Amino acid sequence: MKVKCSKYIHIGITFLSMLLFPLCCLYLEIIFSTALHHSLDAYGYGFSLSIGVFLLSLSFAFRKPKASYVLQGIFISLLSLIYIAQFLYYRIFRTYFIVQSLKGTGNAMFFSDVLLNVMARNLGWILLLVAPVAVIFITQRFLLHRLTFTRKLPVACLVTSLLLYGLTAGLVLRDKVGVICPRSLYISQFVPDKSAQSFGILTMMGLDIRYNVLHLAIEENLTVKLDDITYIKAADVTETTTLTTSETTKDISDVSLTPAATPTPTPQPNVMDISFNLSEEDDTYREMNEYFSSVTPTMTNEYTGIFEGKNLILITAEGFSGYVIDPELTPTLYELSTEGFVFDNFYTPVWGVSTSDGEFVATTGLIPEAGVWSYTEIADNYMPFAFGNQFSALGYLTNAYHDHTYDYYNRDLSYPNMGYTYEAVGLGMDIAVTWPESDLEMMQVTVPEYVGNAPFHVYYMTVSGHLRYTFSGNYIANKNRDLVSGMTCSANVQAYYACQIELDRALQSLIEQLDAAGQLDNTVIALSADHYPYGLEEADYNELAGKDVEETFELYENTFILWCSDMEEPVYVDTYCSSLDIAPTLSNLFGLEYDSRLYIGTDIFADTAPTVIFQDRSFINDKIMYDANTNEVTLLTDEVVTDEYVEGCIQAVNDKFKYSSLIISEDYYRYLFGAASS
Question: Do 444 and 346 belong to one domain?
Fold first, then answer.
């Protein structure tokens, strides 16, 4: 009996020692997903276990307990470090670390205090992610000595890992259901958030290398197919409410400019004389030609050209939120947001490379390509619709400014290609070097460079609103601390307000200088955020908003400022729109030469309503809000909405992602317009 018991104990210990490492790998994936409040699909369990068994087979390769013990310790330590690093990175930037993120490691010093703060706030999760290291080091030292090492052991583990991986991958390849189906994610499209949710963080990182380093993607066109769609009626939609594009969702007052705008001519398509070669030999370009030639263009409208000949100052404001707009604390922001065009349903979604992608979307009207720094990718591309290039062709002075390190995000490469003469800290801008730097100082030193040289177009990327939102470690917050000391809110929210007050003062200085130079009435100011202030914790953001903010859509609601002093009354716009629509809208307002089919965004004032698109493929249009994670459709009208309509909308959104990416990667504008390579 003792012999039999000993035998069973030995077998049990053997299985425990072999299962422990793969289970620890699975544990890391589960804890990671739980910590970020992300669900993990079944495929993620399969891939995680297969990776765990594969690493186990490597640890058995030397067939010695001590060697296996050391290797398992090294492997689990590295895995734990990866998960912790990804967790902290996501907590700071609301996106995952990818290969391209390595480009920014030289600037990591600016976020050292932020990192320490995030680590302190999430110490519990970090300890849970470290726990497997202790488990492996403590238990396997004793368990592995009881394991009989043979030549067959590593082979058996390797075969098991390959079978498990192959089974999981086979199921993935058969799964063609979803907004972006698992098959498409696995072989043709890199979508970090969706890949991490579907396959786990390790497989997502592997796909990142495969797609963006090795460039091994299999192009495949799949039709969107969904399982059961859940329909929810919005609370403010009644049986008698109908909102359609034809009736417009814009409550538009007459806009009166000085001098008065000329009568609107018969609407014409916003297109250029482009010959899309449908017989192109190159398969990719032919497919792109077929797609863009089939896009329905927007039409000219009553706002076409109302700002023609005026100056344009376009601003991407770091971490700006409309919640800080207050007649007393931020009076300039209040004036600009209430006396120009007033957008009630404007969104600034977060994209993969947060700030850089945020300004990329606003200035190009394109969706960033996943897994790369899109602004850097287009640094050598032909960009005819970039405002710097557009306005310089019209004889405008075109300058771009940034009040931080000049080569951060490679802006010294992308901005000149967008048609700008560029200045920043370290490249001609003489302001105090702090963290962050002052938007007010930037306006004080840069406005005199162009205000007397009309016509001009100027682009600003600000930095005063940058996280971390505390009074220690943030120069701007501490500078304006006295101005928010009387607020009855948390210190972090006060610090955030203090940062945005610097932006408000910068805008005040800008307006005063424009007015003194006689250019105020002839200048349009357009301002949007790069992203919402994700440097605030959830509780702080809810406090800022004065309510619990829903995280799929409402989190990204923001304010778009579009203002000119000679507008005699505001124009109220309740059309759903986003930063993706800024470029085509401004192109129409300024009467620029552009082709609306070649923007991914849409002129906000066109009869064709824009679609607000989010990184995870969720979207909002004039009829529905679609949550790609839950497959829920919120009805915004009482019109009949069918599954076929929803699937068609999803397919259209996926197409926008695909062809926007191809515009970037294939330098499509250069091909289309026959521009010579630089």
Answer: yes
